[in-house]
Every structure is written in C-alpha cells, then in structure tokens.
Design goal:
With about 350 residues, the protein is mainly alpha-helical. Helix content is about 70%, strand content about 5%. The chain is globular, with a radius of gyration of 20 Å.
Length: about 350
C-alpha cells in the first residue's frame, strides 16, 4: 500500500478491481446506476458473492460450507465488527485447500477470484463500513439472512437418485431461491426507495415484486447451472419436477440424464414467466426520470429472458454442453435495446414478450 493511500482508499481500490473479476455481467449492469448508488450496490454484491463462494464450493465439505456460512452470518450480524480471530478464520477457510492444490496433491476447481475475495474479506468490510449507516442498515441484515438461509441447504435432505440430492418441491425451491436472491430484491428495494424518496406505500408495494424479481432470475440460473451442480451431487430443481418429467440420472451427472428434458425446461419457463411479469411491474413503478435504476433492472431481465429462450430452443444442448451461454454479441445487442426501452413501459413489455419463449 502506498504511503499516501489510506486503508479506506486501498480497500475501495481493491473492491473496485474485484467486481469485474467475479461477475462481468453484474459489473456491466452496475455501470448504469447513479454514481451515488454504484458503490454501495457493488459492495453489497461482493458481500453476497462471498456467501455464494462458500455455498458453491466444490472443495469444502457440506459440513464445512455450513459452518463457514454460519460464521459469516454471525460476523455480519455485528455489522462486520467482530473479534479478529473470527474474521481471520473466515478469511483462511480456503487456505489449506489452496496449499494442497499448489503442491499438486489435489484439484482446486473453485473460482480463484472468488476465493481471493474471501481471503480479503477485511478489505470489503473496511469499504462497506466507510459508507453511511443508511446503506449499511439495508445491506448487512439482508446478506446475513442470505448466508443463514444458504447454510440450511448445504446438505439437501430429499430423496437420493444415483447420489444426487434434490430440493423437495416448488415450495422448497421458492424458499431456497428466496435466500439466494429474494433477499437481494428486498435489499435493493430499500436502497432504491431511499434514493428515489419513495413513499412508504410505494416501498411496501415494491417489496413483494422485488422478491419475485429475484426469484425469477435465480430460477433461470438454477436451470442454466443444473449440469454443473449435478456433477457435484446436488440439484437445485424440485424433486417433483424431476419425477413429473420422468428424469433419471446416472453416475452422478446430467450427462447421463434420461427423460423429458423439454418438459423440465418448460416447467421452469412457465413459472419464471409469472416472476418476470412481477419484474416488469416493478420496473414500471420506477419513475422514468430514474433511468439509471431502470437500466440496471431492465438489462438482467432481458438477459434472463434470452437465456431461457436459448435453453428452450436447444434443451438437449444444455445437457451436452453443461452450460448454455448467450453469445457476447447478443449480450451487447440486448444492452443496446435496453437503452432504448428505458423510457417506455409499453415497449419494454412488447420487447420482453418477443424475446421470452412461448409457453409449451
């Protein structure tokens, strides 16, 4: 650290540099936010990404993931002001795993930038704690709720098929997706409401829509990542969907999947359509003068719609490839389209309908 750079400045520089490393898509959307909101929303994302890193880890055991998520939630419960020993324990959670990887004794498949983020949690907390209380009051409790909820799902308890564990049913799916993304919808709603000066009545109407918005985006991610997740023995789709579509796994991989894959995809398409109708209503309640907020919200919903369309057109490629992604050219095309849609709810609804896959 430069002698002329304070700890706060060094922490802010670190977090700015980390954001595009852990999520290019989110870093793209966050650039549309007003300057006053870019920093707190970016830092909130990094705190959420740390929880995701524990939940998604392929090198930590289910018990280790549950333990670290619980400790992380405890840390955030004190607004990041805890004893140094706990902070150091969380930061060092991947240390031995990394050492084994570097010595060649084991593989280390976890996303390296995300692990780097965990190891520098102290820097993230310095940056977050430098913000006004109004932001921290919205961020810390929601990320704590996220981590506490994720810890409940580190070991799925539902029926076992070829060593793959599932969520139980659609209600269980909603609960899981709430912890992962619905909490974010609530957090952003409060941050945006404060910024825009919304009335308590408007804030109250936005909260359930924001929750649904988050659930819709997460359910698309669950479907998109199903092969990757199943390769490590978990499936964050409801068991009822698996059984209804006569899906059979083999050898702990969706590469050996059998059954009505198209039917499974359209189960998700039809459910997410309801969530995205809520998302469109959420956006319509944001006054057009706040076009930066609207752009931040429009970009992910358009990308999610296009991703579901791609999966619905090529459902078996999801199994073959493991992860279907939009071409970079299409991503930029949708971003440009969002730019022209930010002032018109009618055009946004029309364009969304043209992108979203038709019901089965």
């Amino acid at each position: 650290m430069s002698e002329n750079m304070t700890k706060k400045e060094a922490a802010e520089k670190f977090t700015r540099n980390m954001l595009p490393q852990v999520s290019r898509t989110f870093n793209l959307a966050i650039k549309f936010l007003p300057q006053k909101l870019g920093k707190p929303v970016g830092l909130a994302y990094l705190l959420c990404r740390i929880a995701d890193t524990f939940e998604d880890s392929a090198v930590l055991s289910p018990g280790e993931r549950q333990d670290m998520l619980g400790k992380y939630a405890g840390l955030l419960g004190g607004y990041g002001n805890c004893d140094k020993a706990l902070l150091d324990e969380i930061r060092g959670s991947f240390k031995n795993k990394q050492a084994n990887f570097e010595s060649g004794t084991s593989s280390f498949p976890d996303h390296i930038p995300s692990v780097n983020l965990v190891e520098n949690l102290d820097q993230v907390l310095i940056a977050v704690n430098s913000m006004p209380d109004s932001f921290r009051d919205h961020i810390f409790p929601r990320v704590q709720e996220m981590a506490t909820g994720m810890a409940k799902y580190t070991t799925l308890a539902s029926g076992d098929q070829a060593n793959v564990k599932f969520l139980n049913d659609e209600s269980d799916w909603d609960n899981y997706c709430y912890y992962v993304a619905g909490t974010v919808g609530h957090m952003l709603t409060d941050i945006f409401s404060d910024y825009a000066g919304f009335s308590e009545d408007t804030r109250a109407k936005l909260h359930p829509l924001g929750r649904s918005f988050g659930l819709g985006l997460q359910k698309v991610n669950v479907l998109k990542d199903a092969v990757i997740d199943t390769s490590r023995g978990v499936c964050f789709l409801p068991k009822t969907f698996i059984e209804r579509n006569h899906i059979a796994f083999g050898k702990k991989s969706l590469l050996d999947l059998r059954g009505d894959i198209t039917g499974l995809v359209f189960d998700v398409v039809n459910i997410c359509h309801r969530h995205f109708q809520d998302s469109l209503e959420y956006i319509s309640m944001i006054p057009k003068k706040h076009y930066g907020l609207r752009m931040f919200l429009i970009v992910p919903i358009m990308l999610a719609a296009a991703t579901l369309r791609l999966i619905s057109e090529y459902p078996h490629k999801l199994v073959d490839k493991g992860d279907l992604k939009l071409a970079r050219s299409e991503v930029w095309s949708l971003v440009r389209k969002a730019f022209f849609l930010r002032f018109s709810d009618r055009l946004l609804t029309y364009s969304f309908a043209r992108i979203y896959p038709a019901n089965n």
